């Protein structure tokens, strides 16, 4: 299990404000995930060729046809704060 301080450290890095209940929930969830990875790490893989793709798949692509884009006013009406025809966002880096 991941301890409370580790969860709070990751939350600070991700700029997340977690409740005490959420910290406990993430601690249990992340701990379970790491336990599962530990099980996988010990899986017998001798004689198994390394692969980077488990199944063949085809990327579904659409035809590259130019279409009109949205008008600036239509796009900007979705933002909570607009300044000088741009989305205004809080500063996250000092300096």
Give a nutshell description of this structure.
With 95 residues, the chain is mainly alpha-helical. It has helices at 4-13, 20-41, 72-76, and strands at 82-83, 86-87.
Can you characterise this structure?
The protein is mostly helical and 95 residues long. Helix content is 39%, strand content 4%. α1 (4-13) packs across α2 (20-41). It is flat.
Helix percent band: 25-40%
Any guess at the CATH architecture of one domain? Orthogonal Bundle
Give Rg in angstroms: 23 Å
Could you list the spans in which at least 5 consecutive residues all have pLDDT below 50? none
Measured between the Cα atoms of the first and last residue, the distance is 37 Å
CATH H-level superfamily of one domain: Glu-tRNAGln amidotransferase C subunit, N-terminal domain
Average per-residue pLDDT, rounded, comes to 88
Which structural class best describes the helix and strand composition?
Answer: mainly alpha
Strand % is: under 5%
Report the principal-axis shape.
flat
CATH class of one domain: Mainly Alpha
Number of strands: 2
Largest sheet properties: 2 strands, antiparallel
Order the strands across the largest sheet as they lie in space: 1-2
Q: How would you spell out the order of helices and strands?
A: HHHEE
DSSP helix count?
3
- In the CATH hierarchy, the third-tier topology of one domain is known as Histone, subunit A
